[in-house]
Write a structure and sequence with these properties.
This protein is mainly alpha-helical. 44% of the residues lie in helices and 5% in strands. Strand 5 and strand 6 form a beta hairpin. Bound molecules: (2R)-2,3-dihydroxypropanoic acid. The site of (2R)-2,3-dihydroxypropanoic acid has 3 residues, from loops.
């Protein structure tokens, strides 16, 4: 609809900061890793050049070991977001980026986004040698995951709930409860100036978040020495990695480079099946400290729908349509099992429906050949985005808007499905 396209474009223009886009002015005043990749996917329809710059500015903050940081800090905004540049002091860490960043990572959706950005305007992309410059950095990023962040099965682990992108999912309750350290100092919550206290992670969670981040920072963010008390293998992270590995294969082809991305993706797909839970009918995260699977139905366990040649597609579609997520009868797709005692309609990743996971699932439905269902979910995203003023997340039962408004990926990903 003309409303969606013009309003979503306006949100992206408002949040553009010259070389990248903030997730939202106020609550998130810096550049976030997986946000930027999702934002580039929408921005490519407005300006392919800006979409390339969005990814290039993030790739420019890559560390020597290949990691892409969770956050690249804008200067002079240190008291607006916690933990900021003065918490991380990344300039003191050998091999960090030339600009201040966080030391953690986020889910690897970047190569997938880079391919989509290229496809929006291949001529402009070739003229600027976008893929030639992005490819080696994206390869180094995946190598980081493979060499520094993989368990024996070959699946990447995350060392902090922030790294999963789904900060306070009930799936992290047990691994977090087992983390003994707690943050001694005062816990700054500038986020509560921009969103209601019932819509954000709790103070108790924040104490653990800061304690975990400080432990990792104090070990120099060195994965070989950091004894990370939180260590989780996540199906959503794995699914995005696989999709991005396949995208790297396409990018290599475009560049005439021989590489084994397809084999890597196949090996990861095989390893992903270890996370299948037949009784729950979805994939589940595994706590690598306690070795316990976290047996919940959460949105992360549905994201493997984007992986080609998955073994359990029919069961997974059954779970998406059944009483736990109610596709088509709930609003978008809830982030957590509607029937579980932990389900919460408004608290961040404990139930609310998010637009990025809906976009991933639209692509998952397309991967399964379910074009009509994909269209219906895409149309719902567009309507809900406009009506909520591009809310960060929604009550999955009533559709009430939560979190911040004029949120960049809500605008970008709804736009992507409507041009
Ligand atoms: C936040 O600050 O809530 C973000 O999710 C962390 O990346």
């Amino acid at each position: 609809s003309p409303d969606l396209v013009s309003e979503a474009t306006r949100v992206l223009m408002e949040n553009w900061r010259g070389l990248y886009t903030v997730p939202a002015s106020g609550l998130y005043p810096h550049q976030w890793s997986w946000d930027s990749a999702f934002i580039a996917v929408g921005l490519r329809h407005v300006s392919p050049r800006r979409a390339q710059q969005e990814l290039e500015s993030l790739l420019g903050a890559q560390w020597a070991d290949g990691r892409l940081p969770q956050i690249v800090f804008a200067s002079g905004r240190d008291d607006e977001y916690s933990p900021g540049a003065s918490f991380w002091r990344s300039e003191l860490i050998p091999g960090s980026a030339p600009v201040p960043t966080a030391g953690l990572i986020q889910p690897p959706n970047h190569a997938w986004a880079a391919l989509l950005v290229h496809e929006a305007d291949p001529e402009e992309s070739r003229r600027r040698r976008f893929l030639d410059r992005a490819y080696p950095r994206l390869v180094a990023w995946h190598e980081y995951l493979r060499r520094r962040r993989s368990d024996e099965a070959g699946l990447a682990f995350t060392v902090h709930p922030w790294e999963t992108g789904m900060d306070n999912s009930p799936a992290w309750d047990a691994p977090l409860a087992a983390v003994r350290g707690t943050f001694g100092g005062n816990v700054p919550r500038p986020d509560l100036r921009h969103a209601d206290v019932t819509e954000r992670p709790s103070n108790a969670e924040y104490e653990k978040y800061l304690s975990l981040a400080a432990t990792y920072r104090d070990a120099g963010c060195d994965d070989s020495v950091a004894a990370t008390p939180f260590r989780v293998t996540d199906p959503g992270v794995t699914a995005l990695w696989i999709r991005s590995e396949l995208a790297l294969g396409r990018i290599a082809e475009e560049l005439g480079i021989e590489a084994d991305h397809a084999d890597r993706a196949a090996a990861l797909t095989e390893a992903l099946e270890d996370l299948w839970d037949a009784e729950l009918g979805c994939y589940v995260p595994v706590d690598r400290v306690s070795c316990e699977p976290q047996r919940f139905r959460s949105i992360t366990g549905l994201l493997p729908l984007i992986v080609p040649d998955l073994l359990h597609v029919d069961e997974l579609l059954g779970t998406l349509h059944g009483e736990h997520f109610r596709l088509g009868r709930s609003v978008l797709v809830p982030s957590f099992d509607l029937t579980a005692p932990e389900f919460d309609t408004s608290r961040y990743w404990r139930g609310p429906a998010w637009f990025n996971t809906a976009w991933v699932l639209v692509n998952g439905l397309l991967e399964c050949g379910l074009e009509t269902e994909a269209r219906v979910l895409a149309d719902t995203m567009g309507a809900r985005a406009v009506e909520s003023d591009f809310a960060e997340y929604l009550d999955p039962i009533t559709g009430a808007a939560h979190g911040t408004r004029r949120f960049s990926w809500t605008a970008a990903l709804s736009l992507d499905l409507h041009v």
